[in-house]
Amino acid sequence: MPEITTKPRVQVKPQTERPKLYKVILINDDFTPREFVVTVLKGEFKLSEDQAHRIMITAHRRGVCVVAVFTKDVAETKATRATDAGKAKGYPLLFTTEPEE
Ligand code: TYC
């Protein structure tokens, strides 16, 4: 019987190829109505009513809250769209992004 040699088919990728993730952060303010914040969170970040409400309340109480993490492009696009939704209504609602450690 001939010997069969097999090569492992998995390749080890260097860790540096993992894309860096960015947090989208919700900033509290004194003017944007709570329900509007919840509506924007549900629409832009596909959160349930309950998840959106918890994030809004956390930002309201602590000043800021991490909404979710994405690749850089997606995080920046979502933060801009969500901020613009507030701007369109005349609210100072603000979402920022920050790289994960
Ligand atoms: N603080 C706002 C109010 O009392 C509600 C609010 C919560 C606004 C979270 C922004 O990121 C925010 N109407």
TrEMBL record:
Q: Name one GO molecular function term.
A: peptidase activity
What are the GO BP annotations of this UniProt entry? Answer: protein catabolic process; proteolysis
Record keywords: Hydrolase, Protease
Occurrences of domain Adaptor protein ClpS core (ranges): 18-96
> What InterPro entries does UniProt report for this protein, alphabetically?
ClpS, ClpS_core, Ribosomal_bL12_C/ClpS-like
Which Pfam families does the annotation name?
ClpS
Q: Which NCBIfam families match?
A: PRK13019.1-4 (NF009564)
What is the annotated role of this protein in its UniProt record? Involved in the modulation of the specificity of the ClpAP-mediated ATP-dependent protein degradation.
Stated family: Belongs to the ClpS family.
How does this polypeptide assemble, per the annotation?
Binds to the N-terminal domain of the chaperone ClpA.
Under which name does UniProt file this protein?
A: ATP-dependent Clp protease adapter protein ClpS
